[in-house]
Model the fold of this input.
Amino acid sequence: MSKKLTKAVSLAVLCSAVTFAAGASADPDSGVYVGGNYGGFKARGGDFDDDRYLLEGVVGWQIIPHLAIEGNYINFAKYGNSAASAEVDGYGAAVVGRLPLTDSFSIYAKGGMFWWDADVKVLGVKRSQSDDNPFYGVGAAFHITPALGITAEYKRFEVDYDRSDFPVAPRRSDTDLDTLTVGVRFNF
Done:
Protein backbone atom coordinates (compact mmCIF):
# COMPACT_ATOMS: atom_id res chain seq x y z
CA MET A 1 0.00 0.00 0.00
CA SER A 2 2.90 2.38 0.72
CA LYS A 3 4.14 2.09 -2.89
CA LYS A 4 0.71 3.16 -4.13
CA LEU A 5 0.69 6.12 -1.74
CA THR A 6 4.22 7.13 -2.77
CA LYS A 7 3.23 7.07 -6.45
CA ALA A 8 0.09 9.10 -5.79
CA VAL A 9 1.98 11.73 -3.76
CA SER A 10 4.73 11.93 -6.40
CA LEU A 11 2.11 12.43 -9.11
CA ALA A 12 0.40 15.16 -7.07
CA VAL A 13 3.69 17.01 -6.52
CA LEU A 14 4.57 16.80 -10.21
CA CYS A 15 1.12 17.99 -11.16
CA SER A 16 1.35 20.97 -8.81
CA ALA A 17 4.66 22.03 -10.31
CA VAL A 18 3.30 21.78 -13.85
CA THR A 19 0.21 23.77 -12.88
CA PHE A 20 2.24 26.66 -11.53
CA ALA A 21 4.46 26.58 -14.63
CA ALA A 22 1.43 26.66 -16.94
CA GLY A 23 0.19 29.97 -15.50
CA ALA A 24 -3.32 31.38 -15.49
CA SER A 25 -3.55 31.76 -19.27
CA ALA A 26 -4.58 28.12 -19.79
CA ASP A 27 -8.00 27.51 -21.33
CA PRO A 28 -9.81 24.20 -20.66
CA ASP A 29 -11.96 24.76 -23.79
CA SER A 30 -9.04 24.63 -26.24
CA GLY A 31 -5.40 23.66 -26.43
CA VAL A 32 -3.14 20.88 -25.25
CA TYR A 33 -3.59 19.01 -21.99
CA VAL A 34 -1.65 16.32 -20.12
CA GLY A 35 -2.78 14.24 -17.20
CA GLY A 36 -2.42 11.18 -15.08
CA ASN A 37 -4.98 8.72 -13.75
CA TYR A 38 -4.91 6.15 -10.98
CA GLY A 39 -7.59 3.58 -10.33
CA GLY A 40 -8.82 0.06 -10.16
CA PHE A 41 -10.11 -2.47 -12.64
CA LYS A 42 -12.02 -5.70 -12.88
CA ALA A 43 -11.72 -8.43 -15.48
CA ARG A 44 -14.50 -10.51 -17.06
CA GLY A 45 -17.26 -9.03 -14.97
CA GLY A 46 -15.52 -9.84 -11.67
CA ASP A 47 -15.22 -7.49 -8.74
CA PHE A 48 -13.07 -4.41 -8.25
CA ASP A 49 -10.24 -5.56 -5.98
CA ASP A 50 -7.71 -3.56 -3.95
CA ASP A 51 -4.92 -5.60 -5.52
CA ARG A 52 -5.93 -4.63 -9.07
CA TYR A 53 -4.75 -1.14 -9.86
CA LEU A 54 -3.68 0.75 -12.93
CA LEU A 55 -1.67 3.81 -13.86
CA GLU A 56 -2.44 5.89 -16.94
CA GLY A 57 -0.80 8.84 -18.65
CA VAL A 58 -2.85 11.04 -21.01
CA VAL A 59 -2.00 13.66 -23.65
CA GLY A 60 -4.74 15.41 -25.60
CA TRP A 61 -5.71 18.33 -27.74
CA GLN A 62 -9.03 20.06 -27.05
CA ILE A 63 -9.78 21.17 -30.63
CA ILE A 64 -13.02 22.97 -29.80
CA PRO A 65 -15.06 23.03 -26.55
CA HIS A 66 -16.97 19.88 -27.61
CA LEU A 67 -14.28 17.81 -29.36
CA ALA A 68 -10.83 16.51 -28.45
CA ILE A 69 -8.38 13.86 -29.59
CA GLU A 70 -6.42 11.98 -26.98
CA GLY A 71 -3.59 9.49 -26.61
CA ASN A 72 -2.85 7.42 -23.54
CA TYR A 73 -0.53 4.82 -22.07
CA ILE A 74 -2.01 2.48 -19.49
CA ASN A 75 -0.39 -0.19 -17.34
CA PHE A 76 -2.64 -2.75 -15.65
CA ALA A 77 -1.18 -4.57 -12.67
CA LYS A 78 -1.06 -8.38 -12.76
CA TYR A 79 -4.47 -10.01 -12.41
CA GLY A 80 -5.89 -13.52 -12.34
CA ASN A 81 -5.23 -16.52 -10.12
CA SER A 82 -2.81 -19.46 -9.86
CA ALA A 83 -4.39 -21.23 -12.86
CA ALA A 84 -4.47 -18.24 -15.24
CA SER A 85 -3.06 -14.73 -14.95
CA ALA A 86 -2.11 -11.81 -17.17
CA GLU A 87 -0.24 -8.52 -17.22
CA VAL A 88 -1.44 -6.02 -19.83
CA ASP A 89 -0.17 -2.63 -20.93
CA GLY A 90 -0.61 -0.57 -24.07
CA TYR A 91 -1.30 2.64 -25.92
CA GLY A 92 -4.63 4.08 -26.95
CA ALA A 93 -5.97 6.77 -29.26
CA ALA A 94 -9.46 8.20 -28.84
CA VAL A 95 -11.93 10.82 -29.93
CA VAL A 96 -13.53 12.63 -26.98
CA GLY A 97 -16.95 14.32 -27.13
CA ARG A 98 -17.37 16.84 -24.30
CA LEU A 99 -20.46 18.61 -22.96
CA PRO A 100 -19.61 21.62 -20.75
CA LEU A 101 -22.38 22.00 -18.17
CA THR A 102 -20.87 25.03 -16.39
CA ASP A 103 -17.68 27.06 -16.76
CA SER A 104 -15.87 24.58 -14.51
CA PHE A 105 -17.73 21.24 -14.91
CA SER A 106 -18.18 19.01 -17.95
CA ILE A 107 -19.10 15.44 -18.82
CA TYR A 108 -17.63 13.50 -21.72
CA ALA A 109 -17.61 10.26 -23.65
CA LYS A 110 -14.69 8.75 -25.51
CA GLY A 111 -14.01 5.89 -27.86
CA GLY A 112 -10.97 4.60 -29.67
CA MET A 113 -8.47 1.81 -30.19
CA PHE A 114 -6.15 0.17 -27.66
CA TRP A 115 -2.88 -1.40 -28.88
CA TRP A 116 -1.87 -3.81 -26.13
CA ASP A 117 0.82 -6.26 -25.13
CA ALA A 118 0.16 -9.01 -22.60
CA ASP A 119 2.06 -11.71 -20.79
CA VAL A 120 -0.49 -14.45 -20.22
CA LYS A 121 0.12 -17.52 -18.08
CA VAL A 122 -2.24 -20.52 -18.21
CA LEU A 123 -1.49 -23.64 -16.12
CA GLY A 124 2.21 -22.74 -15.99
CA VAL A 125 2.55 -22.00 -19.71
CA LYS A 126 3.49 -18.38 -20.36
CA ARG A 127 2.96 -16.65 -23.71
CA SER A 128 3.27 -13.07 -24.88
CA GLN A 129 0.56 -11.69 -27.11
CA SER A 130 -0.33 -8.36 -28.66
CA ASP A 131 -3.27 -7.03 -30.62
CA ASP A 132 -5.53 -4.01 -30.98
CA ASN A 133 -9.09 -3.78 -29.73
CA PRO A 134 -11.62 -1.01 -29.10
CA PHE A 135 -12.18 0.84 -25.86
CA TYR A 136 -14.82 3.33 -24.77
CA GLY A 137 -15.80 5.24 -21.68
CA VAL A 138 -17.50 8.15 -19.95
CA GLY A 139 -16.24 10.69 -17.47
CA ALA A 140 -16.57 14.00 -15.72
CA ALA A 141 -14.09 16.85 -15.29
CA PHE A 142 -14.03 19.65 -12.76
CA HIS A 143 -11.67 22.57 -13.36
CA ILE A 144 -10.28 23.96 -10.12
CA THR A 145 -8.48 26.67 -12.10
CA PRO A 146 -8.27 27.20 -15.87
CA ALA A 147 -4.96 25.31 -15.80
CA LEU A 148 -5.84 22.49 -13.36
CA GLY A 149 -8.69 20.01 -13.38
CA ILE A 150 -9.63 16.71 -11.79
CA THR A 151 -11.33 13.86 -13.61
CA ALA A 152 -13.28 10.70 -12.83
CA GLU A 153 -13.72 8.06 -15.55
CA TYR A 154 -15.18 4.67 -16.30
CA LYS A 155 -13.69 2.88 -19.31
CA ARG A 156 -14.00 -0.58 -20.85
CA PHE A 157 -11.08 -2.12 -22.73
CA GLU A 158 -11.98 -5.14 -24.85
CA VAL A 159 -8.95 -7.47 -24.91
CA ASP A 160 -9.18 -10.66 -26.98
CA TYR A 161 -6.50 -13.31 -26.47
CA ASP A 162 -5.52 -15.95 -29.04
CA ARG A 163 -6.64 -19.19 -27.38
CA SER A 164 -4.81 -21.36 -29.92
CA ASP A 165 -1.47 -20.18 -28.50
CA PHE A 166 -1.82 -22.39 -25.40
CA PRO A 167 -1.58 -26.18 -25.04
CA VAL A 168 -4.64 -26.00 -22.79
CA ALA A 169 -6.98 -23.31 -24.06
CA PRO A 170 -8.39 -20.86 -21.53
CA ARG A 171 -12.14 -21.07 -20.98
CA ARG A 172 -12.68 -17.70 -22.65
CA SER A 173 -10.52 -15.68 -25.00
CA ASP A 174 -12.15 -12.32 -24.34
CA THR A 175 -11.37 -10.25 -21.30
CA ASP A 176 -13.23 -7.02 -20.82
CA LEU A 177 -11.23 -4.81 -18.48
CA ASP A 178 -13.56 -2.34 -16.74
CA THR A 179 -11.77 0.57 -15.11
CA LEU A 180 -12.64 3.29 -12.59
CA THR A 181 -10.07 6.07 -12.29
CA VAL A 182 -9.51 9.50 -10.79
CA GLY A 183 -6.93 11.84 -12.16
CA VAL A 184 -5.51 15.28 -12.69
CA ARG A 185 -5.38 17.26 -15.91
CA PHE A 186 -3.20 20.23 -16.80
CA ASN A 187 -4.30 22.57 -19.57
CA PHE A 188 -1.79 24.68 -21.50
In short: Residues 8-24 have pLDDT under 50 and may be disordered. The longest helix spans residues 2-22.
